[in-house]
């Protein structure tokens, strides 16, 4: 470490960026609360098994992308790469399967050892929802509609397309997997190395391959939708009818598969072309097998997660909230009284900037530069009379005000256009 810098793939969230994150998080919380989702949080690290069991030893997240370590007690722990497994673990370990359905919203950091690039970080942030209990397609429709409403309120929905696919139930997927594997085996030598490996461990993931050679082969591969049984078809039909009724537009994407093994029926992604190759801003699906994989009872679930960094880039600038009023003490003798007066005004609900050091001239210049509108100036003469000077920095007008009247005067001045 020659010079001190953040770890590769991590970033400081300075106020401008933090304000964007805050906007994304608050918008998501509000939009999903309209559907009854309530905020919760799980720890950022879990026993490694929480991720390795359901994600499968073969998934990229476990084999290549995990941040795992043994703690001082010898426990194998992993920084969470996503939050669905943690939420389902919380449901099981908290005995919450007695109070289904559960509707949770979360926001927080996730960790994946990936090659960092624009929109792809090693510590990144997600908002997401999980709807635990129902296994019917209308629950999927609620979850997807909540996602669309969130993106709409953020103002980014017009830049996004909803891709939708059905992975079918376990029976349909098994039938399809067999057909896909026997087809791909006849083309095995032409497949990419990643796909050759996946052919054994997770063949459905090959559909998702970005390799152009793989994509050519997939053109003539058997199609998942031809292997859906009646139950799976009905589930997808109910979902799409409901989305149409809600005015949520979507496109059928037969190659869309979620990276993880426990997904069934519904898979969806909101994709934008405004962010280059890192175009997926929100993705999710149904994961009815997850609870059992974690050693819990059979509990159905459906949810999504959205990348805050990518959404923040799309949503653009959010205004950072800064004080419009500054308390300026003219010399050290008035500092304490100015500090106290600032506290009194803050009690009335006004945001106050209070520079603690420097000459009054410099403080006034700095205040003007920081878009401060009102400067409250307190000097020795004023303090002796229990007054202050109230200066409007936009008009340059100044008036002497009794301290007792200051709160009202500030409120009135801030209301003026
Ligand atoms: P991708 O195909 O981009 O790798 P993914 O399928 O791995 O995405 P999910 O696990 O579904 O992504 O996570 C949901 C969302 O979280 C993604 O759509 C994306 O917006 C965001 N996301 C995932 N990984 C990262 C990352 N490393 N950095 C920033 N955002 C990410
Ligand atoms: Mg990924």
Topology:
Blueprint: H1 15-33, E1 38-39, E2 45-47, H2 48-55, H3 60-63, E3 68-70, E4 76-79, H4 84-93, E5 102-111, E6 123-133, H5 137-154, E7 160-166, H6 170-185, H7 193-201, H8 212-218, H9 230-245, E8 251-252, E9 264-272, E10 280-286, H10 290-293, E11 300-307, H11 308-315, E12 325-329, H12 332-347, E13 352-353, H13 360-369, E14 374-378, H14 380-385, E15 387-392, E16 398-402, H15 406-415
The structure holds adenosine-5'-triphosphate (ATP) and magnesium ion (MG).
What is this structure, in a nutshell?
The protein has 417 residues and is α+β, with helices and mostly antiparallel strands. The protein is built from 15 helices and 16 strands. Strand 3 and strand 4 (76-79) form a beta hairpin.
What is the level 1 CATH name of the largest domain?
Answer: Alpha Beta
Strand content: 15-25%
Residue windows where pLDDT falls under 50 for at least 5 positions: none
For CATH, the homologous superfamily of the largest domain is named as: Bira Bifunctional Protein, Domain 2
Q: Specify the biggest β-sheet.
A: 8 strands, mixed
Kindly report the spatial arrangement of strands forming the biggest sheet: 1-5-6-11-10-9-7-8
Secondary structure category: alpha+beta
Q: How widely separated are the two ends? A: 52 Å
* Secondary structure: helix percent: 25-40%
User: What is the 3D form?
Assistant: elongated
Number of contiguous helices:
15
CATH-scheme architecture of the largest domain: 2-Layer Sandwich
DSSP, total strands: 16
- The radius of gyration over CA amounts to 28 Å
Instruction: Indicate the mean pLDDT.
Output: 93
Number of spatially distinct domains: 2
Which molecules other than protein and nucleic acid are bound? adenosine-5'-triphosphate, magnesium ion
